[in-house]
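Hello Y.,

Per our agreement to keep a running log of every chain we model this quarter, I'm adding this entry. I've kept the format consistent with earlier entries: sequence first, then predicted structure.
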Amino acid sequence: MHSAIARSQFPPSAYADAAKAFIHDLAQECKAQPELHYWLQPDTRQLPTAFPTLWIGIAHLLPFLRWLKSGISRPFPMLYDLSAIDERRRQHRGEREAQQPESDFTLVYQLLSFERDLFIVVKVALSEAHLSAPSATPVWRCANWYEREVWDLFGINFIGHPHLTRIMMPLTWQGHPLRKEHHARATEVDPFTLSAHKQQEEQEALRFRPEEWGMSRAGDASEFMFLNLGPNHPSVHGVFRVALQLDGERIVDAVPDIGYHHRGAEKMAERQAWHTYLPYTDRVDYLGGVLNNLPYVLALEQLAGIQVPERAQVIRVMLCELFRISSHLVFYGTFAQDVGQMSPVFYMFEDREKLFGIIEAITGGRMHPAWFRIGGVAQDLPDGWEKLVRNFVDYLPARLREYDGMVLKNRILQQRTRGIGAYDTRDAMEWGVTGPALRATGLEWDLRKRRPYSGYDQFEFDIPTFDGGDSFDRCRVRVEEIRQSLRIIRQCLDNMPAGHYKSDHPLTTPPRKPRTMEDIETLIQHFLNNSWGPVMPTGETCAPIEASKGLNSYQMISDGGTSAYRNRIRTPSFPHLQMIPQLCGGLFVSDLIAIIASIDFVMADVDR
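Predicted structure for the entry above:
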């Protein structure tokens, strides 16, 4: 580890160089395709991690996306995210608004190039009178669920989509919740009632009809059986349903059904103040703790130009790695349990409890401490924290070696998971797979290394990879990541900087108190930030991080108010579950259980 850690919140020069190189390549290669008219939207605020943004006409959308995916040098093989913005009530669209096309709604495609270590944004302007676009499913298979979500929540039609139906909301829902005219609170509508007739309608809507999904009820030699796995089954890790088409015990096809845990996290951001929304982030990947806080506060800090003190950055890294270990221990134990081993989960949950004891001593909370703040963390580290953390990092390695013999070297577990649910790097990119699941295909790509944030470039750690791409290797990557997290935490222990735990910037929430009794301006600032919340500068921002399950980001728009105009949450679990039909075809139901266990998802992370 370098002698001075966490020198800067972001290393902006590397990001700027990658963006400039892309813009140069784009200008050179577009000379051969003059029909691809686009507008480059430079970031007028010079945000250090801003993504290059391109506007493309709807008629040229699919050719442009295909070209970015495979035609341009060092292409963008992954559709990282697809979302939309209801622009109709937005007051501020930036200093270059005159150069942007008029739009009532905007489609937002985020693409990722692993060779460039670069995210870009492609935007399409839509009018309310013609609210449709061509489906990108012929370009990326993972566009299927993203387009269903945009149609469900915004009402934007995708021409050519194979099955455009609701995905988050109940099939009987009226309206599109992320439109600005849709109510945001239950108090804005009549109290909920469920009559016998309405209950019957809801039950009937849940009936699985194979023909609607292109399935036949019989083959050449036999009739197929249709089986609901979930949404209330322990092996699906939450309220998740998979409708299986079976030929005997073999899986012919599968239809994942999500949305049972949807609670409008993105809509709630539009009515919560910037800092009062922080506890909501904890409930997204509810096993990730402060890992959920980090992309949210990083995005706001880059929007407001807040520099986080070095001590706060290192504290954040240490807490994030503690929660990464906690999340991986849950995965490790339940993975073994799902394939038939009962003992490991009890040992691993005992270690998780030890870790929670440390987190509680530092933050006052356990699973959901909501402890990060805009500009730093809520409090400084308490007396005695070093001993607690050091005892844990000295204790866990021996336990991990014991678990290797108990789980990874177990021949039955290996037989149940080797070669099961396998895919290669190309398939992973096609489906939007990130994090440990991507590294299990052999690709050595970790956002903490390739686009460092919060001072990660000052830490020494390795990126574990395996090349099998199966359920077993997805487990092995996470086990090795626990060891690397211990390395990082030990470096935090040995190199914790002195100084403040929070920035003195006026938009931090809440500001530090010592000066509030000395001058009226600071007292007013403290009162306003704790009551109404800060007023963030206008603009758009996005800060992805390497969460425990993959890449997680908050794409936020400020319209100059005390809450978000739009807050898009990109989670890793959403695209990962979409891949299930490809992984389980021709296998047995017992194999599907091992595959589901190896994905390591949380339904709140999927449904938001």
